[in-house]
Write a structure and sequence with these properties.
Blueprint lengths: L1 E7 L12 H11 L3 E5 L14 H7 L2 E3 L15 E5 L3 E9 L7 E9 L2 E9 L4 H17 L6 E6 L9 H6 L3 E3 L15 E5 L3 E8 L5 H4 L5 E7 L2 H11 L5
Parallel strand pairs: 1-2, 7-8
Antiparallel strand pairs: 1-12, 2-4, 3-4, 5-6, 6-7, 8-10, 9-10, 11-12
């Protein structure tokens, strides 16, 4: 069993408009996941300094940040970072450029978790539907270009308000798209903007929105989580068949 989660922390600014990284750290501890994809970890302008220091992450949570930052003060890549539980082995990392009118990106890491190999992508897609679809294609093409296939989890704030259209339809062609539940706005969640997507050789055993007293105020998004297990030989064969078929 692997627990993954995704959380848009809104640069550690809570619903009271105060920047309180300690509240985000508390929510991360509550999640108790093996891997967490975090969005908006860095500030948008200037040095794009992180709003969540690596020292605080490692000192106050069971996670460590997978290194992606290209600026000295940044933690992530276009605000995206992956946090892995201590003991997880990072085999490889990659930054993915996404087409957009505004800066957007995704991060990829090949990890060894409890002896199992898994590929994880964290992403934050754009506000405009046309660009979200282009960004989804860019993520999928980046996956297709990799030589070593691995069970894969993609997750993040997709900014997709439709239930199963838009970029979700692209991801769903050859992947499972989980719907943990509405995660935005954290004070009154009505939209399932935060999603977890898996390759066909993985199965989501359970998924949900993490709602607690702390998560209601730490960010305008609630984190979502999923417990994932291998899907079995039949699903692996289906994944191989899909890999031979064009998805666009």
């Amino acid at each position: 069993m692997l627990r993954v989660a995704t959380y848009n922390i809104c640069k550690s600014v809570g619903t009271d408009l105060r920047r309180r990284p300690e509240r985000v750290l508390a929510v991360l501890r509550e999640l108790d996941a093996d891997v967490v994809a975090v969005q908006e970890v860095d500030r948008r302008f200037g040095e794009r300094a992180t709003a969540l220091s690596p020292e605080a992450i490692e000192g106050e949570t069971p996670y460590f940040p997978v290194p992606f930052g290209v600026r000295p003060a940044s933690l992530g890549w276009h605000g995206n970072v992956l946090l892995a539980r201590r003991g997880v082995v990072v085999r490889a990392t990659r930054r993915i450029e996404l087409p957009a009118l505004e800066p957007r990106g995704a991060v990829l890491a090949d990890l060894r978790v409890n002896g199992a190999e898994i590929r994880v992508i964290g992403m934050h897609l754009g506000l405009i539907g046309h660009w979200r679809r282009r960004q989804a294609r860019a993520v999928l093409m980046s996956l297709e270009a990799l030589e070593e296939p691995l069970p894969t989890v993609m997750m993040g704030d997709l900014n997709e308000w439709t239930v199963d259209g838009g970029c979700l339809r692209l991801f769903a062609r050859h992947h499972h798209v989980a719907a943990p539940g509405p995660s935005f706005h954290s004070r009154r969640p009505v939209a399932a903007l935060d999603r977890i997507i898996t390759s066909l050789d993985l199965r989501v055993e359970a998924a949900g929105v993490h709602l607690s007293q702390k998560s209601r105020v730490a960010s305008d998004h609630l984190p979502v989580w999923a417990d994932i297990v291998p899907a079995g030989a039949a699903a692996a064969a289906e994944r191989h068949h899909v890999a031979q078929s064009p998805w666009i």
